[in-house]
Design goal:
By secondary structure, the chain is mainly β. 3% of the residues lie in helices and 43% in strands. The protein has a six-stranded antiparallel β-sheet with strand order 1-3-4-12-7-10, with no helix packed on it. It binds manganese (II) ion (MN).
Length: 139
């Protein structure tokens, strides 16, 4: 049966400042019905906006949609990410993602909950020093 969820059927939500720095918007794309656990969300970061450090028990995939973003795995350099890029985040890996300084950025976030229904474990905010670090050269 045809199942189309229209763009205006669900309002944009503002992400809580307990888990994010700056103004970050979330638009739900899909929430899998069992046996699927797949969730997809379009996340839009205003300039300076980013997640806190966090982990995903089952990992996460980010597909970059518009603007210029940033991604960092703990212990690695910050990486600039751009539309068309796909970021593969392993289960349990501490990381953050967000806009590049001065830039709007949106990505599609794809993840699955674990057996307990948890999709993310939230940690401390990303410091301004970490956020503003010189990114690694583009490869
Ligand atoms: Mn993440």
């Amino acid at each position: 049966m045809t199942n189309i969820i229209r763009a205006n059927a669900r309002d944009t939500k503002t992400q809580p400042n307990t888990n994010f720095v700056g103004t970050v918007y979330a638009d739900e794309v899909s929430v899998g019905q069992a046996p699927s656990r797949m969730r997809s969300t379009r996340v839009t970061f205003t300039p300076g906006g980013r997640t806190n450090w966090h982990t995903h028990p089952v990992g996460q995939v980010l597909f970059c949609l518009i603007g210029v973003g940033r991604y960092q795995l703990e212990g690695d350099q910050v990486h600039e990410i751009r539309p068309g890029d796909t970021v593969i985040i392993p289960p349990g890996a501490k990381h953050w993602h967000g806009s590049a300084p001065g830039q709007l950025f949106s990505h599609l976030a794809l993840s699955e909950n674990d057996d307990n229904g948890n999709g993310a474990d939230w940690l401390e905010p990303v410091s301004d020093d970490d956020y503003n670090a010189q990114p690694a050269p583009m490869t």
